[in-house]
Structure formats: structure tokens, C-alpha cells
Design goal:
Elements: H1 2-41, H2 49-59, E1 65-72, E2 81-88, E3 97-107, E4 110-114, E5 124-132, E6 139-146, E7 151-159, E8 164-170, E9 177-182, E10 192-197, E11 207-214, E12 217-225, H3 234-247, H4 253-262, H5 276-283, E13 287-289, E14 294-298, E15 301-310, E16 314-323, E17 326-334
Parallel strand pairs: 7-9
Antiparallel strand pairs: 1-2, 2-3, 3-4, 5-6, 6-7, 7-8, 9-10, 10-11, 11-12, 13-15, 14-15, 15-16, 16-17
Helix pairs in contact: 1-2
Length: 336
């Protein structure tokens, strides 16, 4: 009987020790988070204890850090909003990972979360900051995006009267591209952005799309394309003509000039450049040139017929002229 009593006493003591240990760990973790939150908000006198408690209890985990914190009136409604971004800090900027980002507001003694976690994205968020846009006094939330390798992009969010929404997104779907916001006149306000592309989505042409912010929206104003030397064989002429039409560089002066040289006459009706099969054939080297190309000499030049097949189903006949050692297309006909 004494042995049983002794064992029960030992079990009770052991359970008390475990409970004390757990309470101590929880207390240390809470103190750690409390200290971190205090350090993050120490420069902001407006942050209430309710906000701090909400972040500590519902948002931040033990292994996470507050990587961005702001407490100000970003939508100019007379009330402050708290923007907090939480994640893990990497060795450099692009290896930093932000997995949670929220807009919080204290309303009638309660903390309200405005919108969802805006760090949820196809690509990883490595940076959150506030920016200003040209012609606007409000602040906007900027998220830097990356895949940790060959891609840098961004998204921009606006807190409006009735909703929290994304107003701009720029990141290459292929995983290769470099997009950045620009302040062209250095007045502290963003007035545009650029997209740099070079992968299969632009058929490996180096491309820069330039956007300007006007009338509260971003608009494409110019596309710069780095073109190779003018092609010197009929097949190369046809390939480049199809590629530049398929890509639809509507704001590129150099592409318009090149297309006018590749085909001096308006024969676009002979081929549907919006067909996805054409893009895929070019991107994945499935565009076939038939070997029975005919080149006939003529006075002061030459004429050639090039037949192009797309996956064997659609065939187009291109008739080319050569004048002053320069080939150009004069007609296109679908033959099957």
C-alpha cells in the first residue's frame, strides 16, 4: 500500500513539473513575441494594446518575425490602418519569405481584418512596403514577388471605401522576367513600371514593356524589342514575319518598321495569327518548312515560294521577292 501511495505521489509531482515546464515555455514564447512586437511598433505611438495582442495571439508563430509594420491612415478616411507582414528573414532580399500580410483596423474596441492575407500569391512575397502613386495622396501597398531564381515582379494593393483590392500585377507567367516600378521624375511617387521579358513567352526576343500611370491606371505606352539582323534567306524571312505578328507588339516602332520591310504589302488576311497553334509551333520548334522550296531567277532579282506546315494540318504558301539582295513577302495563301 505504501508503495502505491509513493508511486501516486511521484506521478502527481511529475505531472506538476511538466505543467510548470509548459507554462514556462509558453511564457517565454509569449514574452519573445511581445518583445518583438514592441520592437516593431516602438516608433509608432498610435498602436493600441488590442492590435499588439491580436498580432501575438492570432498571427505570429514562434519561428516568425515581423518584417514590415506600419500604422497610418493610408486611405485618408481619418482612421489609421495597421499593415503587418510576417515571415522568415533570408540571407538576402530575395531569399526572405513573407507568408502572412494583413491590413488591420480597430473599430469600436475590436480588431477587424480588412480583406484576406495579401501575401498569398503564385510567387513568393519577399518584400512589403507602402508607396505613393503619381497624382494621388493615398498610400498603396506594394508586394515584391519572386520565384527565388529568374523572376522578380510585384503586385500593388489599394484600400478603397468598400474593398481591399489588387490594382496592378506584373510577373512573368513563365518564371523568367524582371519587372519593377519606376519614379521617372524622382518626386517620390511611382509613375510607371517596366516589364523585361526574354523567355519563350516572347519567343526569346529581349523585350521591354513600358507602362505609365495616368488617370488612376497603368497603361502600356511603349514596347522596345531587340531585333536581330535582318534575315537573309526566304525561310528566315517567313519565320520572323510569323513570329512578330503572333507576338502582337502593337507599341513597338522597331517591330512595325521591320514588319513593313518583311512584307511590303498588306497580306495579313491570308493567315490567322491569333491561332494558338502558330505560337506553340514557333515556341516549341514545331513549325515545318517543306523542302521543295522553289527559287526562280528573274530580271534584277529572284522569286521564291516557301511552304510552311503547322503540325502537318495547316499549310501556307509564302511567295517572296528579292530586290537589291533583300527578300520580302508579297503574298500568303493557305493551301490546306
Amino acid at each position: 500500500m505504501k508503495k502505491i501511495v509513493s508511486m501516486l505521489v511521484l506521478i502527481i509531482l511529475s505531472m506538476n513539473l511538466i505543467s510548470c515546464s509548459r507554462n514556462t515555455v509558453d511564457k517565454v514564447d509569449n514574452e519573445k513575441n511581445d518583445n518583438q512586437i514592441e520592437n516593431a511598433v516602438k516608433k509608432t505611438s498610435n498602436t493600441s494594446d488590442l492590435i499588439k495582442a491580436y498580432i501575438n495571439e492570432k498571427l505570429i508563430e514562434d519561428n516568425e518575425k515581423i518584417l514590415f509594420y506600419s500604422d497610418e491612415d493610408i486611405d485618408l478616411d481619418g482612421n489609421n490602418e495597421v499593415i503587418v507582414a510576417i515571415g522568415t528573414e533570408g540571407e538576402d532580399k530575395l531569399s526572405t519569405y513573407i507568408g502572412k500580410a494583413y491590413v488591420l483596423k480597430e473599430i469600436d474596441g475590436e480588431i477587424k481584418q480588412i480583406g484576406d492575407n495579401f501575401a498569398e500569391s503564385i510567387y513568393a512575397v519577399y518584400e512589403v512596403k507602402l508607396i505613393s502613386l503619381a497624382g494621388d495622396e493615398k498610400k498603396y501597398i506594394y508586394c515584391g514577388l519572386t520565384n527565388g531564381a529568374n523572376l522578380v515582379g510585384f503586385s500593388i494593393f489599394e484600400l478603397g471605401d468598400k474593398e481591399f483590392k489588387e490594382i496592378a500585377y506584373s510577373a512573368s507567367p513563365t518564371g523568367a522576367g524582371s519587372d519593377e516600378i519606376i519614379d521617372s521624375d524622382n518626386d517620390g511617387k511611382i509613375d510607371g513600371y517596366v516589364q523585361n521579358r526574354w523567355s519563350y513567352d516572347v519567343l526569346y526576343y529581349p523585350v521591354k514593356n513600358i507602362y505609365e500611370y495616368n488617370n488612376q491606371k497603368f497603361e502600356l505606352v511603349k514596347t522596345e524589342v531587340e531585333l536581330p539582323e535582318y534575315p537573309n534567306t526566304p525561310e528566315e524571312i517567313v519565320r520572323e514575319y510569323i513570329a512578330l505578328n503572333v507576338l502582337e507588339f502593337q507599341k513597338s516602332e522597331e517591330v512595325s518598321e521591320r514588319l513593313g520591310k518583311l512584307c511590303s504589302q498588306d497580306v495579313r488576311g491570308g493567315i490567322d495569327f491569333s491561332n494558338e497553334e502558330l505560337f506553340e509551333a514557333l515556341a516549341f520548334e514545331k513549325l515545318e518548312f517543306e523542302s521543295d522550296q522553289e527559287i526562280a531567277a528573274k530580271e534584277n532579282g529572284a522569286k521564291a515560294n516557301v511552304i510552311v506546315s503547322v503540325e502537318g494540318n495547316k499549310r501556307y504558301k509564302f511567295t517572296l521577292n528579292k530586290e537589291n539582295d533583300i527578300w520580302s513577302i508579297e503574298n500568303i495563301v493557305r493551301i490546306s
